[in-house]
From TrEMBL, chains A, B:
Biological process per Gene Ontology, one example term: DNA recombination
Classification via Pfam families: RecR_C, RecR_HhH, Toprim_4
Gene name for this UniProt entry: recR
Organism whose genome encodes this protein: Candidatus Macondimonas diazotrophica
The entry's keywords: DNA damage, DNA recombination, DNA repair, Metal-binding, Zinc, Zinc-finger
Protein name: Recombination protein RecR
Keyword Coiled coil included in the entry's annotation: no
Protein family: Belongs to the RecR family.
Amino acid sequence: MSLFAPPLNRLIEALRLLPGVGPKSAQRMAFHLLEKDRQGALVLAGALRDALEILHHCQDCRMYCEGDRCPICRSSHRDEGLLCVVETPADVVAIENAGFYRGKYFVLMGHLSPLDGVGPEELGLDRFSERLRRGVREVILATNPTVEGEATAHYLAAQAAQIGVHASRIAHGVPMGGELTYVDSGTLSHAFSGRHRVAQTDPGSHPADESF
Amino acid sequence: MSLFAPPLNRLIEALRLLPGVGPKSAQRMAFHLLEKDRQGALVLAGALRDALEILHHCQDCRMYCEGDRCPICRSSHRDEGLLCVVETPADVVAIENAGFYRGKYFVLMGHLSPLDGVGPEELGLDRFSERLRRGVREVILATNPTVEGEATAHYLAAQAAQIGVHASRIAHGVPMGGELTYVDSGTLSHAFSGRHRVAQTDPGSHPADESF
């Protein structure tokens, strides 16, 4: 790699800091920017500095925002009593894009992972319990169905129970449009253990209200 | 996407300017930099600006370098009479890493592609013919074996012939360690048409010197 001039080597090394970018991709990116998109390189450099300077965590939900609080937390049209806990800002986007949820969020920016040094403090859980005390009826635990996500959900449920807030976990099972043949055994086992009785006679009862 | 604060949106859009980075990867990169590697983001921003400011094309070979001429062109230990033409700086690195070539280079920074507006001027071919006139014995055309690379090689060979410089094309065939079963038909056809007579008796003759 010493064939390249030092600034080029430094650029390639810096691009490798991006997740999922190996040495060949970094080289390709560097040459692309230098040769075909010099304006883009300037835009990227500016966007990086701006983002670092301007963006802060929302005081309420820890989402990235420009001021003290993010637009969702500032909104008076959303249910203050419902709090959905997710791992990343991208999860908020996924849920918002689905368009059914009208409550507020709390973004952990990760999950509990003691081996990586991520404990309750790193996830801002002091702010989470403070948030729960401000009139939250139900906390919906929407962390990922991974080992760490489940552990985090358990920890948060215990915290909510201490404060006396009802905690629920989103359902895990066969995805809509999915075929049983291609679903993994863990998901199938979750789908069976989380099965609901099908309402047969009373049109007033909601099938999801009763579980075996 | 309007859920994110504008500086975050701008960063995600800027990261999408990198080749091979789609919306999801760009989001992941942005969150990674903001959450886990803020120092890395600063390093990347600085490296981008430095590279744009400091790097220039080498006057002789068009490789990226800091001064007027790159270390390979400045070197007096390399054969001035051999000129290898490649499409990208990464090709120079590949050939240098192989370690057998002791001549000089000319980097096209692309290939002829009239539809994309890349003609002889964009590839610096005026500088190429000027370079050929400075005591080059043989020009080795090492452009990629693609339609554009072949067309570029033909064009360069004609240019070299005009100046009276011998031009050669690197061999194309079955790669070393490759298996015939898995080689595509175009490569196989090249390997057959470019076959060489095997020297049988005279130990002095090199098999590659004789072709059918």
